[in-house]
Amino acid sequence: MDPLRKVTVLSLEQATVLPYLTYRLAQDGVQVIRLEHPVFGDPNRSVGDNVLQEERMFSYFMAINAGKKALTLNLAEAEGQGILKDLLIKCQVDVFATNQLPKNYLKLGIDYETLRAVKPDLIWLGITGFGPESNEAAYDPILQARGGLMELTGEPDGEPQVLGIPLPDMGASEHAYGLIMKALFRRAATGQGARLDLSMFESTVSWLTVPITLNQSFGKEITRRGNTHEFFAPVSVFPTADGYVYMAMGNDKQWANLTQLPEFASLAQERYQKNAGRIADVKNLNKELTRILQKFKTNEIVAIFNQIGIPISEINPVPQVAKDPLVAKNLLKAKDPRTGLTITLAPPPNMTDFLSSQNQELTFPPRFGEHNREIYGRILGYGEDQINHLKSKGII
């Protein structure tokens, strides 16, 4: 059996950054238990469309929460903090994760020192907006703005734009995934747990490899450039007779292949033979390419360029992406045992052994507190009367 299937993660999570991380771990077969406040819960449960016609199970929540179990627990109460310690021991928790503000760590009894005293080999992960010393709230667009991503996105003469996906959220999740895997490896070798702190802001800025090096080392101004590339040409979106394509010319040999086509013979000019010359006159070059490419249908020019080794693609909407043969075969599913609804989920970055063994199906995103009786009753050994008492007191 894959050793990751023996790993248990207890996650006090909400929003996107931590739920996406634990969703990635669930795809490896990791046992994920998400914790939520018994009154407020995860706000993302009520975002999107109410596709099931029930509370706290809206469509937005479903995208990154399949494959998990869900508990409610009020950690603001001492009794709730005692139950948390029971969970750590009796569920044999390997990783505790939270994206609470640091000011809440001690108040909720979830700080590393407190939990390590209960389970010395625990791996503890805190994901924050700006580090464990800051309590500044951080939403993805704020991180995009402060971290330079918006300044690099959009047309040169237009407003800064947010990205089409929440890269600070999901990028930090991927960085946290790597930290957890390293910590599990080290614990397997040494028996020692770890405290892991991840700043979403630092994670975001780490993607600015070329912009920071060129600006800070060589004084180069780096800003948004629309669909073009700063160092290669022609690279941009071009209209066709019936749509758009994105072409990315990566070297001079590809350019030579292009200009050998009769329709592009007008571009076989000495000044364009080298990439530097094409960059120097990119506006006029792109205008001429637009004029020529508009004579072709999208599928025609894609086929022609593929034959001569020029990278090109149609601009696919999401439904077309999902139909791509490389995507369709890896899509995931989750079926609701109550209603029979089956949802389709995005494919993993790589197909895991666990997903393959499950025919690429995960358990349905858990309802609010769905596994309270299973875990508090069967694993922690609480009787029905005790569970009902805890519920009546607002502890679970």
Question: What do these coordinates show?
Answer:
The protein is of the alpha/beta class and 396 residues long. The chain folds into 2 domains: 3-206 and 326-392, Rossmann fold, CATH 3.40.50; 235-314, formyl-coa transferase, domain 3. Helix content is 39%, strand content 14%. It contains 18 helices and 12 strands. The strands form 3 sheets. A 6-stranded parallel beta sheet has the order 3-2-1-4-5-6, sandwiched between helices. A 3-stranded antiparallel beta sheet has the order 7-8-9, covered by helices on one side. Helix 1 (17-26) packs across helix 7. The chain is elongated. The mean pLDDT is 97.
Q: Layout of SSEs?
A:
Layout: E1 8-12, H1 17-26, E2 31-36, H2 59-62, E3 68-72, H3 78-90, E4 95-98, H4 105-108, H5 112-118, E5 123-128, H6 140-146, H7 167-190, E6 194-199, H8 200-205, H9 209-218, E7 235-239, E8 244-248, H10 252-259, H11 275-280, H12 282-293, H13 298-307, E9 312-314, H14 318-323, H15 325-328, E10 332-335, E11 342-345, H16 353-357, E12 361-363, H17 372-379, H18 384-392
Parallel strand pairs: 1-2, 1-4, 2-3, 4-5, 5-6, 10-12
Antiparallel strand pairs: 7-8, 8-9, 10-11
